[in-house]
């Protein structure tokens, strides 16, 4: 696994210096690497694991070094993170292998003392039973255990309670489940599932056109994907489209649509009959929607550039409008662990932007039509508070029950989807009807 560890080190350094999204960077580099499948799985687990546990790993390093983690060279910092992660969180890696391979990496650094330093830190960690530093207070303890900034732990505990907070934190670590949407416009569910099983994929039918995959490998390489019979989409996103409840013949606007997953699900729920107009601010992202709709054979989808914050008089009055706004992404940390390390200040202006987009979106809804507001965030400022502000300023809209979602009935007009509810991403959905 030496090649895999060297690969991960280069990737961690690159990610730290460029602030790239981890999933995009890893997928791109793995596709070009010479690693075999076993090495790729190990590299992916180690790469994501180090990013997920960075705060905890750095706390261990800080407790064992005279020099703070941020003062170490980028290479040594990440070699130590990798070594400590393997020692504490990868049971399949023997302690000696974790230490020895880390020392080998350190020997390639242009510092004669680097290898000895790394060896001393890691062997000291092993001698002390690989224990974490002691901290005082519940918030600090949760922050250390789940490698989440204290401000975010405190935010979730204050807004949702300590029990729900710990559930969110627990779900933010580890491999996310893989859900796909069945394109029943092209084939029935039984046919698609049979094709996937013939390819050796284990399928769990969630109902309502959603399935969960295991053992699929790269979904894009499956025949079912190449034939346009499925598209990747988390369960919570599919629930959002179910809440919109599009019907055949409807005119639907998806105003912040790229890369197009919800657009495609909406079109499929409508049996590809009607109009689904999908928009994004950037042409390159609009191209993603167009290419996805073409692969799936969805003729009802029309994608174009549009600024969701500014009213566009050329757009038609719509039966249904989906306003899935840009957000902090605090519900998808399991997929993009670097999100939790963003400064708290970066979130402050989001609710203002989200409310502006929601108010602009509302103008396109015809009388009696439905408007759905959604985020992939777990933050009351981005969710509940935006909804409250919108309703207080827009007497023409009323909240309406979400109805049946994922086999459950919801009488409320808004729902915070915690990860443990459906084993899905964290999400928020609110539904309104135009009265006049």
Distance between the termini: 65 Å
The low-confidence parts are none
Given the helix and strand composition, which structural class is it? alpha/beta
> How many strands appear in the DSSP assignment?
14
How would you characterize the largest beta sheet?
8 strands, mixed
Helix content: 40-55%
Report the principal-axis shape.
globular
Mean pLDDT over the residues? 95
Strand content: 15-25%
Q: What is the count of helical runs?
A: 18
Global Rg: 24 Å
Write the layout of secondary structure elements.
Elements lengths: L1 H17 L3 H11 L4 H16 L1 H11 L9 H16 L5 H13 L6 H14 L10 H9 L3 H11 L1 H10 L6 E5 L6 H10 L3 E6 L2 E5 L8 H4 L3 E3 L2 H10 L6 E4 L6 H9 L5 E6 L2 H14 L4 E5 L12 E7 L25 H13 L2 E11 L8 H10 L3 E3 L3 E3 L2 E3 L3 E4 L1 H4 L4 E8 L2
Parallel strand pairs: 5-6, 5-8, 6-7, 8-9
Antiparallel strand pairs: 1-3, 1-4, 2-3, 9-14, 10-14, 11-12, 13-14
Helix pairs in contact: 1-3, 1-5, 2-3, 3-5, 4-5, 5-6, 5-7, 6-7, 8-9, 9-10, 13-14, 16-17
């Amino acid at each position: 696994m030496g090649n895999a560890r060297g690969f991960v080190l280069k990737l961690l350094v690159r990610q730290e210096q460029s602030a790239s999204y981890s999933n995009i960077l890893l997928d791109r580099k793995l596709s070009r690497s010479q690693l075999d499948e076993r090495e790729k799985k190990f590299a992916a687990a180690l790469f994501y694991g180090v990013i997920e546990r960075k705060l905890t790993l750095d706390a261990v390093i800080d407790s064992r070094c005279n020099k703070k983690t941020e003062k170490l060279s980028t290479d040594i910092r990440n070699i130590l993170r990798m070594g400590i992660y393997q020692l504490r969180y990868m049971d399949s890696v023997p302690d000696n292998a974790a230490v020895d391979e880390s020392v080998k990496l350190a020997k390639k650094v242009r510092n004669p003392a680097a290898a000895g330093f790394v060896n001393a830190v890691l062997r000291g960690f092993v001698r002390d039973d690989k224990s974490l530093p002691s901290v005082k207070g519940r918030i600090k303890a949760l922050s250390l255990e789940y490698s989440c900034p204290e401000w975010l732990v405190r935010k979730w505990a204050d807004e949702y309670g300590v029990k729900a907070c710990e559930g969110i934190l627990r779900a933010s670590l580890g491999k996310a489940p893989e859900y796909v949407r069945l394109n029943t416009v092209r084939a029935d569910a039984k046919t698609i599932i049979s094709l996937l099983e013939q390819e050796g994929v284990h399928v769990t039918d969630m109902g309502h056109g959603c399935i969960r995959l295991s053992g699929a490998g790269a979904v894009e390489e499956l025949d079912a994907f190449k034939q346009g019979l499925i598209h990747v989409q988390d369960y919570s996103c599919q629930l959002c489209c179910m809440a919109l409840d599009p019907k055949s013949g409807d005119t639907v606007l998806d105003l912040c649509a790229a890369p197009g997953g919800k657009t495609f699900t909406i079109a499929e729920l409508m049996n590809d009959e009607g109009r689904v107009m999908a928009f994004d601010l950037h042409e390159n992202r609009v191209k993603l929607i167009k290419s996805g709709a073409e692969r799936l054979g969805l003729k009802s989808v029309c994608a174009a550039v549009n600024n969701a914050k500014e009213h566009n008089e050329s757009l038609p009055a719509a039966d249904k409008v989906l306003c899935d706004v840009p957000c902090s992404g605090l519900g998808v940390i399991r997929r993009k662990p670097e999100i939790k390390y963003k400064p708290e200040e970066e979130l402050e202006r989001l609710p203002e932007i989200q409310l502006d987009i929601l108010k602009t979106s509302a103008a396109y809804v015809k009388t009696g039509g439905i408007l759905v507001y959604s985020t992939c965030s777990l933050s009351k400022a981005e969710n509940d508070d935006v909804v409250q502000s919108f309703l207080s300023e827009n007497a023409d809209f009323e909240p309406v029950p979400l109805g049946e979602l994922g086999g459950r009935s919801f009488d409320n007009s808004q729902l915070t989807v915690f990860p443990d509810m459906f084993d899905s991403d964290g999400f928020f959905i609110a539904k309104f009807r135009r009265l006049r």
